[in-house]
Amino acid sequence: MSTLFVAPVLAAGIMDLKPGLTLWTALTFLLLLVVLSKFAWKPIVKMLDERERSIRDAIEQAKKERLEAEKLLADQKLVLGQAQREAADLAHKSKQEVEVLRADLTAKARKEAEDMVASARKQIQDEKAKALAELKGQVADLAIEAARRLIQSSLDEKSQRKLVEEYIAQLPAERAA
Fold first, then answer.
1. From the centroid of its chain, how far is CA 19?
2. pLDDT tens sequence across 5-44
3. Model confidence over 73-91: pLDDT tens digits?
4. Cα gap 159→151, rounded to integer Å
């Protein structure tokens, strides 16, 4: 064999058209379409429709739940705002009540202190008056005793009687003063 004769090798490419293979590929594809349309197309479409419906229902449910959540959030914000206002009002009222109570207690304490001071002053005045009256009584007794001794030694009975009567006459005037 000679090396001169080389048979050209034809490379079969993708783009080469072979009528037999093309015919069988087309027939297989059509048969597959018929079988799929007869047995699988309806279940696949039904499954896709059900999936679409379930996705649509899930989206609708999610929208409803979102709207409900937003409504609940708005309600919670409203309730929270109201609770904060009530708490602020309660704190303000409590502060006012504390101020009123403090003022009342301060006024009561002042009044009690003033009453105690007035009572102490009255008691001091009473004790002072009592002490002065007692002192006057003692001084009067001492003066009478001293006068009696003096009179006994220097006056006779007539003079003593006159002196005692004068003293008795003056006595109510001195005690009143």
1. 91
2. 544 545 556 778 888 888 999 999 999 989 888 888 888 8
3. 999 999 999 999 999 999 9
4. 8
DSSP string, 82-121: HHHHHHHHHHHHHHHHHHHHHHHHHHHHHHHHHHHHHHHH
Cut 0.85: pTM above it = no
| Residue 98 amino acid letter | V
Q: Which sign, positive or negative, has the C-alpha torsion 155, 158, 159, 162?
A: positive
- With CA atoms as reference, report the closest residue to 83 among 69, 75, 95: 75
Instruction: Give the three-state DSSP class for 127.
Output: helix
CA–CA distances in Å: residue 66 to residues 53, 70, 73, 95, 129: 19, 6, 10, 42, 92
Angle between helices 41-154 and 157-176 (to 10 degrees): 160
